[in-house]
Amino acid sequence: MVTGVSPTPQALADPLRFAHHHEYRNVAATAQRKRLSLDRVKAVPVADETTQAYPDMSADTVLVPAPTVTVDGDEITIRKWIESNEALDAEALVGDFYDRLTSDPEIEGYFAGIDMDRQRKHFLAAVLLVTGAGLTVGTARAMEQVHRNVARPDGTAITGEVHDKVIGTLAGVLSEYGVPDAAIGKIADVVAPLRPLIVVA
Question: Which of 10, 95, 161, 186 has a CB 3.0–4.6 Å from the CB of 67, allowing a cystine?
Fold first, then answer.
């Protein structure tokens, strides 16, 4: 069982999925079936030399370690937990998350003219990256660069209020999809240093 987190109701219906180590030796096969592969992570953009975040640190410096949970006595990353949890449909989760953002009048304008299918893929890649490798300086710089010129059609840049509402929406969707509160809190901790890099208004 997962120490410190609770399995989803779907998982409780199949306790062997969480009770045997061999399930976690099949992570690669599960990830392939769910199309949660490293190809997605490669979609995360690489920052250029114009970014200002952490100028005195190398790109591979880890700002926040990968968040983990303990499963059947073994400590694994949340990424591995996501990929091995067949009850969790990560692509559907991301789809619901963006459906809610684009239906919110305070937020929808930031996605004007955006290819939302591509956006969903990039976001899933970013989630898998930080939950599997933690937040590095390189990833932080890339996120700063990606969000630098994001604005609504009226020119309003990303505000602290909007950022926090987006994070709150994500937490709510994660919870509804059965991601335990402890894991959600750890994910929030990993992305917290990104706030001052994304909020520019």
Answer: 186
Question: How do residues 72-104 score in pLDDT, each as one tens digit?
Answer: 999 999 999 999 999 999 999 999 999 999 999
Q: Longest C-alpha distance within the chain, in Å?
A: 54
Amino acid at 193: P
Cβ atoms of residues 193 and 140 within 8 Å: yes
pLDDT digits (tens, 9 = 90+) for 126-163: 999 999 999 999 999 999 999 999 999 999 999 999 99
Written as one letter, the residue type at 40 is R
Alpha helices in the chain (DSSP H): 9-12, 16-19, 27-34, 38-41, 78-84, 90-102, 116-133, 137-147, 160-176, 181-191, 195-198
- CA pair distance 53, 32, nearest whole angstrom: 34
Cβ-in-10-Å burial (0-12, 13-18, 19+) of 126 comes to buried
